[in-house]
Amino acid sequence: MAAVRDGEFAALQSLLKAPSKDAVRQLCQECFSSPPAGLGPLAQRACPGLAAGPEEALQLVSALHNLTRHVVYRGLTRAEDILSIFPENFHQNLKNLLTKIILENISAWRNEAQASQISLPRLVDMDWRVDIKTSSDSISRMAVPTCLLQLKIQEDVALCGNSPVVSALTVELSKETLDTMLEGLGRIRDQLSAVANK
Amino acid sequence: MRGAMASGSAVVLARALEALDVGGAADKINLIPQDFFAELCEQIIQHLNHKIPGVDTAELCQRIQTSGIEINVGDLAKIANVVSFLFSTAARNSLSTEELVTTLGNAVTALPKHAVQVIRHVWNEHGKSISVSEDARNMATLGQFVDIKWKLGVAMSSDTCRSLKYPYVTVMLKVADPSGQITDKSFEMTIPQFKNFFRQFKEMAAVLETV
């Protein structure tokens, strides 16, 4: 995440025309959350009062997007570190306001970045049921306990954008295979404890 | 009477083969070296005998590809389906080796010679032992869980956060679908999600105990 360029700080000055501090806050959040491709539409939607024209609007949202993402990338958490990003002659009050807004949101933004980074598909839900098979067309009486498990798995968020694809995997487990699963999971748990204790 | 019944069964097999697009499979079977094809057939027989939960086509495909053959998992799965159907139909109709081989030879698009040889050999060895009856443990209407592989990782850095240190668990479940194909499903969990996952399975096991 490249550092914020001087031209971009100049574009941020448009925020001085904002109707309220809350408007600035709102815009910061939207600019952070928007992917680069969404900045164009965001500029048209969010900045009619702030910018002289569409080009200036786009420069503003891009600058705000880059600034907020840069702070999250560097993992800055202290006011003085964030303040020091701004150039010497930047408008004092605006600098303080932006720093305050960033500090308020930094933790939520970091979580958002982690949640949307590339990954394998993620488990989003899990449901289960225990059944007993009592009979079938070939066996008239039996009592076989079975577990039915349904896992809902969401494909890579980065690929799906705003319409996540969730697939359901339904699996049957017998007592034996459930024990296999528990053994595997137990080893993960042991490994987690070992790592946590280091 | 027996002769008429037997050839009737062979006709059933022949018609079913046509329907199953053996022609399409025949071209693809040509690609597979004889020893890999033999391994596939052996796995299929073991699955039909309920000795293994399914045929691990993904794993076998990888080995075939490593040896330089260009075949994809989908094609291998189709071939496995055709051969599995062949063997289970032959078992249900108690076909002899000769009947099976003759029917294959007479099918509209014949299988390659090396494949027929393998089928003849495998059927000779194991054909009699395939039991078509179901018992309680082997009634599968859903995918059956086979195995779990896992990895515990820490994401160090990404394009959005230079210093992450974000732990996660990656899990790969091997599931045998009712037709006997084993597929892999991989996914990630955060640590809290994993703890919940584990807890749910312990609850399941507890319920199973009481039932």
Automatic annotation (TrEMBL), chain A:
Boundaries of every COMM domain copy: 122-196
Cross-referenced InterPro entries: COMM, COMMD9, COMMD9_N
Protein name per UniProt: COMD9 protein
Gene: Commd9
UniProtKB/TrEMBL annotation, chain B:
Function as written in the Swiss-Prot or TrEMBL entry: Scaffold protein in the commander complex that is essential for endosomal recycling of transmembrane cargos; the commander complex is composed of the CCC subcomplex and the retriever subcomplex. May modulate activity of cullin-RING E3 ubiquitin ligase (CRL) complexes. Down-regulates activation of NF-kappa-B. Inhibits TNF-induced NFKB1 activation.
Pfam families cross-referenced by the UniProt entry: COMM_domain
Coiled coil: none
Domain COMM: 144-211
Keywords in alphabetical order: Signal
Organismal lineage: Eukaryota, Metazoa, Chordata, Craniata, Vertebrata
Signal peptide stretch: 1-19
Record's keyword annotation contains Signal: yes
PROSITE patterns: COMM
This protein's record includes keyword Signal: yes
The family this protein is said to belong to: Belongs to the COMM domain-containing protein 6 family.
Descriptive protein name: COMM domain-containing protein 6
